[in-house]
Amino acid sequence: MSPIDARAAITRAHHEEWARVVASLAKRFSDLDIAEEAAAEAFATAVERWPADGVPPNPGAWLTTTANHKAIDRIRREHKRVDKHREALMLTDDDPPEPLGAIDDDRLRLIFTCCHPALAMEARVALTLRMVGGLTVPEIARGFLVQESTMGQRITRAKGKIAAAGIPYRVPYTRDLPARISGVLAVLFLVFNEGYLATGSDTDPVRADLTAEAIRLTRLIRTLLPDDGEVAGLLAVMLLTEARRPARVSADGELVPLGEQDRGAWDEALIAEGHRLVRDRLDSGAPPGRYQLLAAINAVHTDALDARDTDWSQVVALYDQLVRLDPSPIVALNRGIAVAELEGPDAALEVIDPLGNALDGYHAFHATRAELLRRLERREEARTAYDRAIALAGNTAETAYLSRRRDELS
Amino acid sequence: MQYLVSVIDDRSNSGTPEEMVAIDHFNDRLRAGGHWVFAAGLAAPSTSTVIDGRGEHPVFTDGPFIESKEHMAGFWIIDAPDLDVALGLMAEGSKACNRRLEVRPILAA
Protein backbone atom coordinates (compact mmCIF):
# COMPACT_ATOMS: atom_id res chain seq x y z
CA MET A 1 0.00 0.00 0.00
CA SER A 2 1.58 3.26 -1.04
CA PRO A 3 1.36 6.16 1.41
CA ILE A 4 -0.52 8.13 -1.25
CA ASP A 5 -3.22 5.43 -1.56
CA ALA A 6 -3.53 5.30 2.23
CA ARG A 7 -3.83 9.05 2.44
CA ALA A 8 -6.56 9.07 -0.24
CA ALA A 9 -8.41 6.33 1.67
CA ILE A 10 -8.20 8.34 4.90
CA THR A 11 -9.47 11.50 3.17
CA ARG A 12 -12.36 9.52 1.69
CA ALA A 13 -13.11 7.84 5.02
CA HIS A 14 -13.06 11.21 6.75
CA HIS A 15 -15.60 12.57 4.28
CA GLU A 16 -17.84 9.51 4.36
CA GLU A 17 -17.46 8.16 7.88
CA TRP A 18 -16.75 11.10 10.21
CA ALA A 19 -20.39 11.88 10.97
CA ARG A 20 -21.25 8.20 11.44
CA VAL A 21 -18.40 7.61 13.86
CA VAL A 22 -19.19 10.75 15.87
CA ALA A 23 -22.91 10.01 15.82
CA SER A 24 -22.59 6.43 17.01
CA LEU A 25 -20.25 7.47 19.84
CA ALA A 26 -22.47 10.39 20.81
CA LYS A 27 -25.38 8.00 21.09
CA ARG A 28 -23.45 5.49 23.16
CA PHE A 29 -21.73 7.90 25.55
CA SER A 30 -24.17 10.84 25.46
CA ASP A 31 -21.26 13.24 25.38
CA LEU A 32 -20.29 15.21 22.28
CA ASP A 33 -16.83 16.03 23.64
CA ILE A 34 -15.93 12.40 24.12
CA ALA A 35 -17.46 11.49 20.75
CA GLU A 36 -15.57 14.16 18.86
CA GLU A 37 -12.20 13.68 20.50
CA ALA A 38 -12.34 9.90 20.24
CA ALA A 39 -13.26 10.18 16.55
CA ALA A 40 -10.36 12.58 15.97
CA GLU A 41 -7.99 10.16 17.78
CA ALA A 42 -9.24 7.26 15.66
CA PHE A 43 -8.50 9.17 12.45
CA ALA A 44 -5.08 10.15 13.81
CA THR A 45 -4.40 6.46 14.49
CA ALA A 46 -5.48 5.63 10.93
CA VAL A 47 -2.95 8.17 9.62
CA GLU A 48 -0.23 6.30 11.57
CA ARG A 49 -1.32 2.75 10.84
CA TRP A 50 -2.94 2.54 7.41
CA PRO A 51 0.17 3.42 5.36
CA ALA A 52 2.06 0.57 7.11
CA ASP A 53 -0.69 -2.00 7.73
CA GLY A 54 -2.88 -1.29 4.72
CA VAL A 55 -6.41 0.10 4.57
CA PRO A 56 -8.80 -2.20 6.47
CA PRO A 57 -11.51 -3.89 4.39
CA ASN A 58 -14.26 -1.93 6.18
CA PRO A 59 -12.77 1.46 7.09
CA GLY A 60 -15.96 2.68 8.77
CA ALA A 61 -16.12 -0.33 11.10
CA TRP A 62 -12.39 -0.04 11.88
CA LEU A 63 -12.76 3.66 12.72
CA THR A 64 -15.86 3.12 14.87
CA THR A 65 -14.25 0.29 16.83
CA THR A 66 -11.01 2.23 17.28
CA ALA A 67 -12.91 5.36 18.35
CA ASN A 68 -14.93 3.30 20.84
CA HIS A 69 -11.72 2.01 22.42
CA LYS A 70 -10.27 5.54 22.50
CA ALA A 71 -13.42 6.82 24.21
CA ILE A 72 -13.29 4.07 26.83
CA ASP A 73 -9.57 4.77 27.42
CA ARG A 74 -10.38 8.41 27.91
CA ILE A 75 -13.22 7.72 30.32
CA ARG A 76 -10.91 5.39 32.30
CA ARG A 77 -8.27 8.12 32.49
CA GLU A 78 -10.89 10.45 33.90
CA HIS A 79 -12.01 7.71 36.29
CA LYS A 80 -13.00 10.10 39.03
CA ARG A 81 -15.81 11.37 36.79
CA VAL A 82 -17.01 7.97 35.65
CA ASP A 83 -20.52 7.28 36.79
CA LYS A 84 -22.24 3.92 36.95
CA HIS A 85 -23.98 4.47 33.65
CA ARG A 86 -20.74 4.98 31.77
CA GLU A 87 -19.08 2.05 33.52
CA ALA A 88 -21.92 -0.13 32.31
CA LEU A 89 -21.44 1.15 28.75
CA MET A 90 -17.76 0.29 28.92
CA LEU A 91 -18.52 -3.30 29.86
CA THR A 92 -21.27 -3.91 27.34
CA ASP A 93 -22.11 -2.73 23.85
CA ASP A 94 -18.68 -3.50 22.41
CA ASP A 95 -20.50 -4.93 19.42
CA PRO A 96 -19.48 -4.78 15.80
CA PRO A 97 -20.82 -1.68 13.99
CA GLU A 98 -24.54 -1.47 13.55
CA PRO A 99 -26.28 -1.96 10.20
CA LEU A 100 -26.40 1.06 7.91
CA GLY A 101 -29.99 2.10 8.63
CA ALA A 102 -29.48 2.45 12.36
CA ILE A 103 -26.27 4.43 11.85
CA ASP A 104 -28.06 6.83 9.51
CA ASP A 105 -30.58 7.43 12.26
CA ASP A 106 -27.67 8.26 14.55
CA ARG A 107 -26.51 10.90 12.11
CA LEU A 108 -29.95 12.44 11.93
CA ARG A 109 -30.07 12.51 15.72
CA LEU A 110 -26.72 14.28 15.70
CA ILE A 111 -27.95 16.92 13.23
CA PHE A 112 -31.03 17.61 15.36
CA THR A 113 -28.89 17.85 18.49
CA CYS A 114 -26.49 20.32 16.86
CA CYS A 115 -29.42 22.37 15.50
CA HIS A 116 -31.37 22.49 18.78
CA PRO A 117 -33.44 25.69 19.12
CA ALA A 118 -31.97 26.29 22.61
CA LEU A 119 -28.61 27.03 20.94
CA ALA A 120 -27.78 30.37 19.30
CA MET A 121 -28.10 30.23 15.52
CA GLU A 122 -24.37 30.87 14.98
CA ALA A 123 -23.53 28.07 17.41
CA ARG A 124 -25.87 25.70 15.56
CA VAL A 125 -24.13 26.40 12.26
CA ALA A 126 -20.66 26.02 13.76
CA LEU A 127 -21.51 22.85 15.66
CA THR A 128 -23.17 21.25 12.62
CA LEU A 129 -20.10 21.94 10.49
CA ARG A 130 -17.80 20.52 13.17
CA MET A 131 -19.70 17.49 14.43
CA VAL A 132 -21.62 16.47 11.32
CA GLY A 133 -19.52 17.99 8.55
CA GLY A 134 -16.15 17.14 10.09
CA LEU A 135 -14.70 20.58 9.26
CA THR A 136 -11.85 21.69 11.49
CA VAL A 137 -12.23 24.65 13.84
CA PRO A 138 -9.76 26.78 11.78
CA GLU A 139 -11.76 26.00 8.61
CA ILE A 140 -15.03 27.04 10.23
CA ALA A 141 -13.45 30.16 11.72
CA ARG A 142 -12.12 31.13 8.28
CA GLY A 143 -15.49 30.55 6.65
CA PHE A 144 -17.23 32.83 9.13
CA LEU A 145 -14.49 35.47 9.42
CA VAL A 146 -13.88 35.09 13.13
CA GLN A 147 -10.77 34.31 15.16
CA GLU A 148 -10.00 30.64 15.59
CA SER A 149 -10.12 31.06 19.38
CA THR A 150 -13.55 32.72 19.15
CA MET A 151 -14.90 29.88 17.04
CA GLY A 152 -13.32 27.30 19.36
CA GLN A 153 -15.02 28.92 22.35
CA ARG A 154 -18.33 29.08 20.52
CA ILE A 155 -18.23 25.36 19.79
CA THR A 156 -17.00 24.44 23.27
CA ARG A 157 -19.72 26.55 24.84
CA ALA A 158 -22.42 24.95 22.67
CA LYS A 159 -21.18 21.44 23.56
CA GLY A 160 -21.13 22.47 27.21
CA LYS A 161 -24.73 23.65 27.05
CA ILE A 162 -25.82 20.42 25.37
CA ALA A 163 -24.29 18.40 28.21
CA ALA A 164 -25.25 20.66 31.14
CA ALA A 165 -28.77 21.62 30.06
CA GLY A 166 -29.69 18.06 29.10
CA ILE A 167 -30.30 18.62 25.38
CA PRO A 168 -31.22 15.09 24.30
CA TYR A 169 -29.67 12.99 21.53
CA ARG A 170 -32.74 12.21 19.57
CA VAL A 171 -34.89 13.16 16.67
CA PRO A 172 -37.62 15.31 18.23
CA TYR A 173 -41.09 14.02 19.00
CA THR A 174 -43.43 13.95 16.02
CA ARG A 175 -45.37 16.96 17.30
CA ASP A 176 -42.17 19.04 17.53
CA LEU A 177 -40.72 17.86 14.25
CA PRO A 178 -42.10 20.47 11.81
CA ALA A 179 -40.84 23.35 13.96
CA ARG A 180 -37.47 21.69 14.53
CA ILE A 181 -36.93 20.80 10.86
CA SER A 182 -37.31 24.43 9.87
CA GLY A 183 -34.38 25.32 12.16
CA VAL A 184 -32.25 22.53 10.69
CA LEU A 185 -33.06 23.65 7.14
CA ALA A 186 -32.21 27.26 8.03
CA VAL A 187 -28.79 26.11 9.26
CA LEU A 188 -28.15 24.06 6.14
CA PHE A 189 -29.22 26.98 3.90
CA LEU A 190 -26.82 29.31 5.78
CA VAL A 191 -24.00 26.81 5.31
CA PHE A 192 -24.81 26.57 1.59
CA ASN A 193 -25.04 30.33 1.09
CA GLU A 194 -21.78 30.93 2.92
CA GLY A 195 -20.19 28.52 0.44
CA TYR A 196 -21.88 30.06 -2.58
CA LEU A 197 -21.05 33.68 -1.77
CA ALA A 198 -18.05 33.22 0.49
CA THR A 199 -16.86 36.31 2.31
CA GLY A 200 -13.26 37.29 2.96
CA SER A 201 -10.53 39.00 0.98
CA ASP A 202 -8.30 35.93 0.88
CA THR A 203 -11.10 33.36 0.56
CA ASP A 204 -12.12 31.69 -2.69
CA PRO A 205 -15.26 33.49 -3.94
CA VAL A 206 -17.03 30.14 -4.03
CA ARG A 207 -16.32 27.44 -1.45
CA ALA A 208 -17.40 24.23 -3.14
CA ASP A 209 -16.57 22.25 0.00
CA LEU A 210 -19.26 24.11 1.95
CA THR A 211 -21.91 23.91 -0.79
CA ALA A 212 -21.20 20.19 -1.24
CA GLU A 213 -21.45 19.58 2.50
CA ALA A 214 -24.77 21.43 2.74
CA ILE A 215 -26.16 19.41 -0.18
CA ARG A 216 -24.92 16.14 1.33
CA LEU A 217 -26.58 16.88 4.68
CA THR A 218 -29.84 18.00 3.04
CA ARG A 219 -29.88 14.78 0.98
CA LEU A 220 -29.44 12.87 4.23
CA ILE A 221 -32.40 14.65 5.82
CA ARG A 222 -34.40 13.95 2.68
CA THR A 223 -33.75 10.20 2.71
CA LEU A 224 -35.06 10.12 6.27
CA LEU A 225 -37.97 12.55 5.77
CA PRO A 226 -38.92 11.89 2.15
CA ASP A 227 -42.42 13.35 2.41
CA ASP A 228 -41.45 16.76 3.77
CA GLY A 229 -42.07 19.34 1.02
CA GLU A 230 -39.74 21.96 2.44
CA VAL A 231 -36.85 19.48 2.69
CA ALA A 232 -37.38 18.63 -0.99
CA GLY A 233 -37.73 22.34 -1.76
CA LEU A 234 -34.46 23.27 -0.05
CA LEU A 235 -32.62 20.42 -1.76
CA ALA A 236 -33.97 21.64 -5.12
CA VAL A 237 -32.89 25.24 -4.38
CA MET A 238 -29.39 24.03 -3.56
CA LEU A 239 -29.12 21.76 -6.62
CA LEU A 240 -30.40 24.40 -9.05
CA THR A 241 -28.07 27.01 -7.54
CA GLU A 242 -25.08 24.66 -7.43
CA ALA A 243 -25.74 23.76 -11.09
CA ARG A 244 -24.89 27.34 -12.09
CA ARG A 245 -21.65 27.45 -10.11
CA PRO A 246 -19.32 26.64 -13.05
CA ALA A 247 -20.60 29.72 -14.95
CA ARG A 248 -20.74 32.07 -12.01
CA VAL A 249 -17.17 33.41 -11.74
CA SER A 250 -15.20 34.45 -14.85
CA ALA A 251 -11.63 33.35 -15.58
CA ASP A 252 -10.35 36.64 -14.15
CA GLY A 253 -12.27 36.21 -10.90
CA GLU A 254 -15.28 38.41 -11.59
CA LEU A 255 -18.85 37.55 -10.68
CA VAL A 256 -20.97 36.83 -13.78
CA PRO A 257 -24.62 37.86 -13.30
CA LEU A 258 -27.33 35.33 -14.11
CA GLY A 259 -28.32 37.02 -17.37
CA GLU A 260 -24.78 36.91 -18.75
CA GLN A 261 -23.79 33.39 -17.71
CA ASP A 262 -22.76 30.77 -20.27
CA ARG A 263 -25.72 28.48 -19.84
CA GLY A 264 -23.88 25.68 -21.63
CA ALA A 265 -21.59 25.47 -18.61
CA TRP A 266 -24.45 24.76 -16.21
CA ASP A 267 -24.56 21.25 -14.76
CA GLU A 268 -27.36 19.47 -16.62
CA ALA A 269 -27.62 16.53 -14.24
CA LEU A 270 -28.11 18.77 -11.20
CA ILE A 271 -30.68 20.87 -13.10
CA ALA A 272 -32.60 17.75 -14.15
CA GLU A 273 -32.65 16.50 -10.55
CA GLY A 274 -33.72 19.90 -9.22
CA HIS A 275 -36.52 20.21 -11.80
CA ARG A 276 -37.72 16.71 -10.95
CA LEU A 277 -37.99 17.66 -7.27
CA VAL A 278 -39.91 20.85 -8.11
CA ARG A 279 -42.30 18.93 -10.41
CA ASP A 280 -42.92 16.28 -7.76
CA ARG A 281 -43.84 19.00 -5.29
CA LEU A 282 -46.20 20.68 -7.77
CA ASP A 283 -47.83 17.30 -8.47
CA SER A 284 -48.38 16.75 -4.75
CA GLY A 285 -50.87 19.65 -4.77
CA ALA A 286 -49.82 20.68 -1.25
CA PRO A 287 -49.42 24.44 -0.71
CA PRO A 288 -45.74 25.31 -1.21
CA GLY A 289 -43.59 26.70 1.59
CA ARG A 290 -40.74 29.17 1.39
CA TYR A 291 -38.07 26.81 0.05
CA GLN A 292 -40.43 25.26 -2.49
CA LEU A 293 -41.22 28.73 -3.86
CA LEU A 294 -37.52 29.59 -4.02
CA ALA A 295 -36.97 26.29 -5.82
CA ALA A 296 -39.75 27.08 -8.30
CA ILE A 297 -38.18 30.50 -9.01
CA ASN A 298 -34.83 28.83 -9.62
CA ALA A 299 -36.55 26.29 -11.86
CA VAL A 300 -37.98 29.11 -14.03
CA HIS A 301 -34.49 30.59 -14.41
CA THR A 302 -32.86 27.27 -15.26
CA ASP A 303 -35.67 26.43 -17.68
CA ALA A 304 -34.69 29.25 -20.04
CA LEU A 305 -32.03 28.22 -22.56
CA ASP A 306 -31.37 31.91 -23.15
CA ALA A 307 -31.67 34.63 -20.49
CA ARG A 308 -34.07 36.51 -22.82
CA ASP A 309 -36.47 33.53 -22.72
CA THR A 310 -36.92 33.82 -18.94
CA ASP A 311 -40.60 33.85 -17.99
CA TRP A 312 -40.41 36.96 -15.80
CA SER A 313 -44.15 37.17 -15.18
CA GLN A 314 -43.94 33.69 -13.67
CA VAL A 315 -40.97 34.77 -11.53
CA VAL A 316 -42.84 37.85 -10.26
CA ALA A 317 -45.95 35.76 -9.54
CA LEU A 318 -43.85 33.31 -7.49
CA TYR A 319 -42.23 36.21 -5.60
CA ASP A 320 -45.72 37.60 -4.88
CA GLN A 321 -46.51 34.28 -3.18
CA LEU A 322 -43.17 34.28 -1.38
CA VAL A 323 -43.70 37.81 -0.01
CA ARG A 324 -46.94 36.62 1.57
CA LEU A 325 -45.10 33.77 3.38
CA ASP A 326 -41.92 35.69 4.16
CA PRO A 327 -42.42 39.47 4.26
CA SER A 328 -38.71 40.16 4.84
CA PRO A 329 -37.16 43.15 3.03
CA ILE A 330 -34.65 40.85 1.30
CA VAL A 331 -37.45 38.90 -0.37
CA ALA A 332 -39.06 42.22 -1.37
CA LEU A 333 -35.73 43.32 -2.88
CA ASN A 334 -35.47 40.17 -4.96
CA ARG A 335 -39.04 40.61 -6.10
CA GLY A 336 -38.07 44.16 -7.16
CA ILE A 337 -35.29 42.77 -9.35
CA ALA A 338 -37.84 40.59 -11.16
CA VAL A 339 -40.22 43.58 -11.47
CA ALA A 340 -37.42 45.48 -13.23
CA GLU A 341 -37.31 42.81 -15.94
CA LEU A 342 -41.07 42.76 -16.34
CA GLU A 343 -42.07 46.41 -15.95
CA GLY A 344 -38.82 48.35 -16.29
CA PRO A 345 -36.39 50.12 -13.95
CA ASP A 346 -38.78 52.95 -12.94
CA ALA A 347 -41.37 50.54 -11.57
CA ALA A 348 -38.64 48.54 -9.83
CA LEU A 349 -37.16 51.60 -8.12
CA GLU A 350 -40.58 52.42 -6.72
CA VAL A 351 -40.63 48.94 -5.16
CA ILE A 352 -37.04 49.03 -3.93
CA ASP A 353 -36.44 52.56 -2.64
CA PRO A 354 -38.77 52.21 0.37
CA LEU A 355 -36.61 49.26 1.54
CA GLY A 356 -33.67 51.62 2.12
CA ASN A 357 -34.22 51.95 5.85
CA ALA A 358 -34.17 48.22 6.44
CA LEU A 359 -31.46 47.33 3.92
CA ASP A 360 -29.03 50.25 4.08
CA GLY A 361 -26.25 47.95 5.33
CA TYR A 362 -26.87 45.24 2.71
CA HIS A 363 -24.61 45.34 -0.35
CA ALA A 364 -27.17 43.76 -2.71
CA PHE A 365 -29.64 46.60 -2.06
CA HIS A 366 -27.14 49.21 -3.27
CA ALA A 367 -25.93 47.00 -6.13
CA THR A 368 -29.51 46.57 -7.35
CA ARG A 369 -30.20 50.30 -7.12
CA ALA A 370 -26.96 51.03 -8.95
CA GLU A 371 -27.95 48.81 -11.89
CA LEU A 372 -31.45 50.33 -12.07
CA LEU A 373 -30.14 53.93 -11.90
CA ARG A 374 -27.62 53.05 -14.58
CA ARG A 375 -30.40 51.82 -16.87
CA LEU A 376 -32.21 55.12 -16.25
CA GLU A 377 -29.00 57.02 -17.16
CA ARG A 378 -28.90 58.60 -13.69
CA ARG A 379 -25.13 58.19 -13.71
CA GLU A 380 -24.11 60.20 -10.64
CA GLU A 381 -26.66 58.47 -8.41
CA ALA A 382 -25.62 55.14 -9.90
CA ARG A 383 -21.97 55.82 -9.11
CA THR A 384 -22.80 56.64 -5.47
CA ALA A 385 -24.81 53.44 -5.18
CA TYR A 386 -21.96 51.34 -6.68
CA ASP A 387 -19.53 52.90 -4.20
CA ARG A 388 -21.78 51.96 -1.32
CA ALA A 389 -22.26 48.41 -2.65
CA ILE A 390 -18.51 47.92 -3.13
CA ALA A 391 -17.80 49.15 0.40
CA LEU A 392 -20.27 46.62 1.83
CA ALA A 393 -19.63 43.57 -0.39
CA GLY A 394 -17.41 40.93 1.21
CA ASN A 395 -17.06 38.62 -1.79
CA THR A 396 -14.02 39.22 -3.98
CA ALA A 397 -15.72 38.24 -7.27
CA GLU A 398 -18.64 40.52 -6.53
CA THR A 399 -16.38 43.46 -5.65
CA ALA A 400 -14.51 42.98 -8.94
CA TYR A 401 -17.75 42.96 -10.94
CA LEU A 402 -19.20 46.03 -9.20
CA SER A 403 -15.95 47.98 -9.58
CA ARG A 404 -15.88 47.38 -13.33
CA ARG A 405 -19.53 48.40 -13.70
CA ARG A 406 -18.88 51.61 -11.76
CA ASP A 407 -15.76 52.44 -13.78
CA GLU A 408 -17.71 51.99 -17.05
CA LEU A 409 -19.90 54.92 -16.02
CA SER A 410 -17.16 57.52 -16.42
CA MET B 1 -32.61 16.12 36.01
CA GLN B 2 -33.99 19.22 37.68
CA TYR B 3 -34.54 22.65 36.20
CA LEU B 4 -35.10 26.03 37.81
CA VAL B 5 -37.74 27.93 35.86
CA SER B 6 -37.76 31.66 36.58
CA VAL B 7 -40.79 33.79 35.86
CA ILE B 8 -39.73 37.02 34.16
CA ASP B 9 -41.77 40.11 35.03
CA ASP B 10 -41.39 43.87 35.14
CA ARG B 11 -44.10 44.43 37.78
CA SER B 12 -44.78 42.88 41.19
CA ASN B 13 -47.90 41.15 42.50
CA SER B 14 -49.31 41.56 39.00
CA GLY B 15 -51.00 38.17 38.64
CA THR B 16 -54.69 38.30 37.74
CA PRO B 17 -57.29 35.87 39.18
CA GLU B 18 -57.59 34.24 35.71
CA GLU B 19 -53.83 33.70 35.62
CA MET B 20 -53.89 32.15 39.12
CA VAL B 21 -56.54 29.66 37.98
CA ALA B 22 -54.54 28.78 34.85
CA ILE B 23 -51.37 28.36 36.93
CA ASP B 24 -53.20 26.07 39.41
CA HIS B 25 -54.39 23.90 36.52
CA PHE B 26 -50.91 23.76 35.07
CA ASN B 27 -49.40 22.86 38.46
CA ASP B 28 -51.90 20.01 38.81
CA ARG B 29 -50.72 18.67 35.46
CA LEU B 30 -47.06 18.95 36.56
CA ARG B 31 -47.93 16.90 39.67
CA ALA B 32 -49.90 14.32 37.69
CA GLY B 33 -46.96 13.87 35.29
CA GLY B 34 -44.43 13.48 38.12
CA HIS B 35 -42.60 16.71 37.15
CA TRP B 36 -43.50 18.82 40.19
CA VAL B 37 -40.82 19.60 42.76
CA PHE B 38 -41.64 23.06 44.10
CA ALA B 39 -42.96 26.43 42.99
CA ALA B 40 -43.57 29.81 44.56
CA GLY B 41 -44.13 33.44 43.80
CA LEU B 42 -41.68 36.01 45.13
CA ALA B 43 -42.28 39.38 46.81
CA ALA B 44 -41.11 42.52 44.99
CA PRO B 45 -37.35 42.96 44.46
CA SER B 46 -37.59 46.08 46.65
CA THR B 47 -38.18 43.73 49.61
CA SER B 48 -34.90 41.89 49.17
CA THR B 49 -31.67 42.36 51.10
CA VAL B 50 -28.16 41.45 49.99
CA ILE B 51 -25.83 40.01 52.66
CA ASP B 52 -22.05 39.97 52.46
CA GLY B 53 -20.83 37.81 55.32
CA ARG B 54 -17.33 37.30 53.98
CA GLY B 55 -15.73 39.95 56.19
CA GLU B 56 -15.45 40.22 59.95
CA HIS B 57 -18.94 41.66 60.28
CA PRO B 58 -21.76 40.89 57.88
CA VAL B 59 -22.81 43.81 55.69
CA PHE B 60 -26.49 44.15 54.79
CA THR B 61 -27.55 46.14 51.72
CA ASP B 62 -31.10 47.07 50.82
CA GLY B 63 -32.37 45.91 47.40
CA PRO B 64 -31.61 43.11 44.92
CA PHE B 65 -28.04 42.20 43.87
CA ILE B 66 -28.69 43.38 40.34
CA GLU B 67 -30.84 46.32 39.25
CA SER B 68 -32.73 45.67 36.07
CA LYS B 69 -36.00 46.53 34.41
CA GLU B 70 -37.14 42.92 34.62
CA HIS B 71 -36.73 40.59 37.54
CA MET B 72 -37.58 37.12 38.82
CA ALA B 73 -41.17 37.23 40.06
CA GLY B 74 -41.50 33.57 40.93
CA PHE B 75 -40.10 30.16 40.08
CA TRP B 76 -40.72 26.48 39.53
CA ILE B 77 -38.36 23.64 40.20
CA ILE B 78 -39.31 20.76 37.92
CA ASP B 79 -38.08 17.29 37.21
CA ALA B 80 -37.68 16.30 33.56
CA PRO B 81 -35.60 13.65 31.81
CA ASP B 82 -34.12 16.18 29.37
CA LEU B 83 -34.35 19.75 28.09
CA ASP B 84 -36.87 18.95 25.36
CA VAL B 85 -39.33 17.67 27.94
CA ALA B 86 -38.65 20.67 30.19
CA LEU B 87 -39.14 23.13 27.32
CA GLY B 88 -42.30 21.39 26.16
CA LEU B 89 -43.81 21.56 29.66
CA MET B 90 -42.80 25.13 30.35
CA ALA B 91 -44.04 26.38 26.99
CA GLU B 92 -47.45 25.51 28.47
CA GLY B 93 -46.40 27.06 31.79
CA SER B 94 -45.55 30.33 30.02
CA LYS B 95 -49.00 30.34 28.44
CA ALA B 96 -50.65 29.57 31.80
CA CYS B 97 -48.93 32.36 33.74
CA ASN B 98 -48.88 34.69 30.73
CA ARG B 99 -45.22 35.58 31.21
CA ARG B 100 -41.82 34.75 29.74
CA LEU B 101 -39.83 32.04 31.51
CA GLU B 102 -36.16 31.19 31.83
CA VAL B 103 -35.29 27.49 32.07
CA ARG B 104 -31.94 26.71 33.71
CA PRO B 105 -30.55 23.33 34.67
CA ILE B 106 -29.73 22.67 38.32
CA LEU B 107 -26.31 21.09 38.72
CA ALA B 108 -26.58 17.45 39.72
CA ALA B 109 -25.66 16.91 43.37
Protein architecture, described:
The complex is a heterodimer of chains A (about 400) and B (about 110). Chain A has about 400 residues and is an all-alpha fold. Among the domains of chain A are: about 5-90; about 320-410, Serine Threonine Protein Phosphatase 5, Tetratricopeptide repeat. Chain A has helices spanning about 5-30, 30-55, 60-75, 85-90, 100-115, 120-130, 135-145, 150-165, 175-195, 210-225, 230-240, 270-285, 290-305, 310-325, 330-345, 345-350, 355-360, 365-375, 380-390, 395-410. In chain A, α6 (about 120-130) crosses α9. Chain A is elongated and about 75 Å long. Residues about 95-100 of chain A have low confidence and may be disordered. Chain B is of the alpha+beta class. Chain B has one domain: 2-Layer Sandwich (Alpha-Beta Plaits), CATH 3.30.70. The radius of gyration of chain B is 16 Å and the shape is globular. The model of chain B has no long low-confidence stretch (mean pLDDT about 95). The interface between A and B is small, with 11 and 12 residues.
SSE map:
The complex is a heterodimer of chains A (410) and B (109).
Chain A: H1 3-29, H2 32-53, H3 59-77, H4 84-91, H5 100-114, H6 121-132, H7 137-143, H8 148-165, H9 177-196, H10 208-224, H11 229-242, H12 268-284, H13 290-303, H14 312-325, H15 329-343, H16 345-352, H17 356-359, H18 363-375, H19 379-392, H20 396-408
Helix pairs in contact in A: 1-2, 1-3, 1-5, 2-3, 5-6, 6-8, 6-9, 7-8, 9-10, 9-11, 10-11, 11-12, 11-13, 12-13, 13-14, 14-15, 15-16, 16-18, 18-19, 19-20
Chain B: E1 2-9, H1 17-32, E2 36-41, E3 49-52, E4 59-62, E5 71-79, H2 83-97, E6 100-105
